[in-house]
Design goal:
Rossmann fold, DNA polymerase, domain 1, 6 strands, HAD-SF_hydro_IA, HAD-like_hydrolase_sf, phosphoglycolate phosphatase activity, PGP-like_dom2
């Protein structure tokens, strides 16, 4: 099967790189700095939304919107302290290389950009297998809107029915479903299986290593 015929689209944070809880701590501290006490469990469930949407989701429409930019900037600075040691999840790089070798066009769909995206790609260490990246900078609306996944499909040159999207959050599953692609969930981001399935996951695996060992007969066979 030709490489242009099917695409494997991957979320990055919590799916390929073990960063969700680093984001939680960075957001918690960013909120704390402006006097907002937001529970970590609530932040965890919001991770995966673009920064502006995450702040709105957690603080509500009646918040002081003048604080939004400062909160996001604080999160970015705090999270940036981890860039030199972001840990890839088990099997992340080998999974992407195997899929690439099997004829899949591998594209990343992430809200990360710039130095953050570079740090994530260094952690995954499989640039030779990645055809392109659809980042938040490329779309008007982030997940759970379908745009990031649709942009990834454009980069791959593949229609939705020939693609699979792998992610770890409810927002990923909703975005993939709305884009018309088959969705696969992973549990390594900390979101429960039932939540992923309710949001559109056709199959759920523990982490990239589990997905890699289960390729035969699975959605990415």
């Amino acid at each position: 099967m030709g490489s242009a015929e099917r695409a494997a689209v991957f979320d990055v944070d919590g799916t390929l790189v073990d960063t969700n809880h680093l984001h939680v701590v960075a957001w918690w501290e960013a909120f704390r700095q402006v006097g907002q006490q937001v529970p970590m469990h609530a932040i965890h469930r919001a991770v995966g939304l673009p920064s502006t949407d995450l702040v709105a989701h957690l603080l509500g429409d009646d918040r002081d919107k003048d604080q939004d930019a400062g909160i996001s900037a604080a999160h970015k600075a705090l999270y940036g302290q981890y860039f030199d040691r972001l840990p890839a999840l088990p099997g992340a790089g080998p999974l992407l290389r195997r899929l690439h070798g099997n004829g899949w066009t591998v594209v990343l769909a992430t809200s990360a950009g710039g130095a953050e995206l570079s740090a994530l790609r260094r952690a995954i260490d499989a640039d030779d297998a990645i055809t392109g990246t659809a980042s938040a900078d490329d779309v008007d609306e982030g997940k759970p809107a379908p745009e990031p996944v649709e942009h990834a499909l454009e980069l791959a040159g593949v229609p939705a029915e020939r693609a699979v999207f792998v992610g770890d959050t409810v927002w990923d599953m909703l975005a993939g479903s709305r884009a018309g692609v088959r969705c696969v969930g992973v549990l390594c981001g900390g979101i429960p299986r039932t939540d992923l399935e309710k949001s559109g996951a056709d199959a759920v695996y523990a982490d990239p290593a589990h997905l890699l060992s289960s390729l035969r007969g699975g959605p990415l066979a």
